[in-house]
Amino acid sequence: MTIINRKKNTQMYLVTSALPYANGDIHLGHIVEAVQTDIFVRFQKLVGNHAVYVCADDTHGTPIEVSAMKLKITPQELIERVYNRHIEDYKAFGINFDIFYTTNSNENKYYAEKIYSSLRNKGLIIEKKISQYYCEHDKRFLPDRFIKGICPSCKAEDQYGDVCEICGATYEPTDLKSPYCILCKNPPVLKESVHLYVQLSKYENFLRNYILSSDVLAEEMKNFVKTWIDGGLKDWCISRDGPYFGFEIPDMPNKFFYVWLDAPIGYISSTQKWCNENNKNIDDYWSKKSNTKLIHFIGKDIVYFHTLFWPVMLESAEFKLPSKIFVHGFLNAEGGEKMSKSRGTFIQAKDYLERVKHPQSAEFLRFYFGSKLSNSAEDIDFNTNEFINRINTVLSNNIGNLHHRTVVFCQRYFNNEIPDGPWDNEIAEKIIKEGEAIFSDYNNVMYKSVIERIQELGNVGNKYYQDSKPWELIKNDINKAAIVMVTCANLVRSLGVFLKPIVPSIVKKLEVQYGKEFSWEDHVFSLRKVKLGEPEKLVQPLEKDDLSSLFKKEDLKEKSININKEIDIKEFQNIDLRVAEIKHAEKIEKSDKLLKLQIDIGGELRQIVAGIAQNYSPESIIGKKIIVVANLKSTIIRGIKSEGMLLAAKNKNDLCLIIPEKDISSGSKVS
Ligand SMILES: [Zn+2]
Ligand SMILES: [Zn+2]
Predict the structure, then answer these.
(1) d(CA 638, CA 657)
(2) Which of 177-200 are b and which e, b meaning 16 or more Cβ less than 10 Å from the residue's Cβ?
(3) Residue 78, Cβ neighbours under 10 Å: how many?
């Protein structure tokens, strides 16, 4: 049988999740990726392959320095604190790293220097003199996080030197208007400094070959990367001026490796640490000659780093290249919205565990994420109703129920044993066939499909049980009743084997019940005349109440006054607000929200379309003075021209017009 053959040629895997950054807690987005990776590794181990799951904290760079400064501790203290919290969080979700290390290690320094010298020796590194902000007061260069100013794009104040948190624009620190040093608030000066750049373009052919003519990436991602390569590969700056929390560059005093150089090297150095502790040879994992498959799991925000910079670093130093890079999407909340702190939908791992009262909450989340994950980079929507539904339908009602009714029946009529007898061949063969498909789904990270197949097999089992009516058979044909029990017990065990990488703790209960730890081969029917443990329910159903405080609705109310980021007076003065009188108002056909208004702005007649019909009748507002935005670009709404916008206050369904406190002539300016 093919299943047995597979075990003979064991495949070696080195599997990674992206390194979480050490300046904050693990959130549910991290958990998605860790669960995706962990399932893959657990599956490989289950089928008898050798797999090592490697991860670490990414600890360097200015955000760490800034966070530590705010807490009045050293960066080292910060990363130690965070490290312990990260370990706790991952553990709570059953993430079974073989090693979780740190990039602030001797091993990482060693490999960073090694890769750097290879890049240098291969002629990939050039020096460029650039002008950078420098603070005369603090006597230091100011990297992007040490400098703030006005966003060149949207004019928002107090934005960092690399990206605007308001409009999302990215830019150079020198593009900021009115820049200032975050340490002393003084304006910086420009000063020349030498920096190191990796000329990626020299490896363009290599990258085209490696990424585009292989199956390292899924098609959709390949197309992305192709547009980057086609657009021309830019030189990549890998140095930062000191002081910087990171590794000093060997031949460049007071210059440090940019955090993105040594972060992915953490994959190698953590493997090294694991090898040291487990008496293994790193060459078996990272040398070009090794047969180990290197598999990365990453989010779609760091594809650039992993598909362009990283392969060039590895290739130049003659390390193994990734065999697969699986890219997942972002986790969104309830209906596709980005998880957001102000809306209370940005959930830390610790918050989840604290807020969801169910004792199996962590395992349920693994199952739910599993049921949504495939090898596509599409975003994942966290929907509480769907979550409850999937847990209860598949785990509780389907598999849990089949398991429970089977063991209770065996306990009652067969002396707490799976009886001795044959099983239903049709079902046994179905399991073998589906087992092959599930095997391939797991290898392709199609967990969604794995769970669908498991659910379908659970349905088959329940229907078989129901149709066979063992409670009637037991009265007059005990042998036939035995066949039903042998079949159902074997089927439940098969489902347990299939589910084991996804919900290991739940399956543990089954293993205790059946008196044996499951390996992949155990999905094939073989059980008869086996003593069962005490019947125990696999899962307690998930109630709506269990999840009611997950997105902290009560906090949401308090926070519903979300004042927009401040603007300066100039931005406000750009808006021309005027008093206007409503001369005429009428309903717009086929719209229950819109009114068409004719207004007078100091002698100028205009038409505007306003969404106030549910709160005001046309006749009730004629003659009223209102405030309008007079310089708004005209637009067409429902085929009707609208030349301006009126001001109204809104709270849920309640709406009121803003009206001058006493009569004042129309056209008056509002400021
Ligand atoms: Zn901006
Ligand atoms: Zn300063």
Answers:
(1) 22
(2) eebbbbeeeeebeeeebebbbbbb
(3) 21
Residues whose Cβ atom is located within 5 A of ion ligand 2: 135, 137-138, 181, 183-184
Q: How far is the CA of 574 from the centre of ligand 1 (A)?
A: 17
Residue 52 CA to ligand 1 centre (angstroms): 43
Q: Which two tokens stand for residue 205?
A: 């052919």
> Residues 446, 447, 448, CA angle at the centre, nearest 5°?
90
Q: What is the pLDDT of residues 176-208, one digit of tens each?
A: 999 999 999 999 999 999 999 999 999 999 999
C-alpha R_g of the chain:
32
Bond into 243 cis (ω within 30)? yes
158 CA from centroid of ligand 1 (Å): 10
Ligand 1 centre to CA of 633 (Å) is: 22
Burial 392-415 (b: 16+ CB within 10 A, else e): bebbbebbbbbbbbbbebbeebbe
* Separation of CA 156 and ligand 2 centre (Å): 21
Give me the average pLDDT of each 10-residue run along the chain (671 residues): 53 98 95 98 97 98 91 95 97 98 98 98 96 93 90 92 84 92 94 96 97 94 94 94 95 94 98 98 97 97 94 97 97 81 82 94 98 94 94 96 96 96 97 98 98 98 98 96 98 98 97 95 96 91 90 47 67 87 86 86 88 85 90 81 87 79 88 85
Kind and range of the H or E element at 655? strand 654-657
Question: Which pTM value belongs to this model?
Answer: 0.80
The rounded distance, in Å, linking the Cα atoms of 551 and 548 is 7
Contact call for residues 29 and 84 (beta carbons, < 8 A)? no
Q: What angle do the packed helices 447-468 and 401-413 form, to 10 degrees?
A: 40
Q: Element (H or E) spanning 642, and its range?
A: strand 640-642
Per-residue pLDDT tens over the stretch 355-391: 998 999 999 999 999 999 999 999 999 999 999 999 9
Three-state secondary structure call for residue 622: coil
65 CA → ligand 1 middle, Å: 24
User: How far apart are the CA of 544 and the centre of ligand 2, in A?
Assistant: 52
Question: In angstroms, what CA-CA distances link 546 with 26, 272, 348, 371, 399?
Answer: 22, 43, 17, 20, 21
Three-state DSSP state, 664: coil
CA distance 428 to 342: 52
- 241 phi, psi to nearest 5 deg: -75, 145
Ligand closest to the CA atom of residue 134: 2
Among residues 633, 622, 626, 623, the alpha carbon closest in space to that of 655 is found at 626
Ligand 2 centroid from CA 245, angstroms:
17
Residues near 37 by Cβ (< 8 Å), separated by ≥ 6?
Answer: 15, 16, 17, 53, 95, 297
Tell me the C-alpha distance between 491 and 484, whole Å: 10
Q: Any residues with CB less than 8 A from the CB of 377 and at least 6 apart, and which? A: 218, 220, 221, 300, 327, 328, 329
Distance 160 CA to ligand 1 centre (A): 10
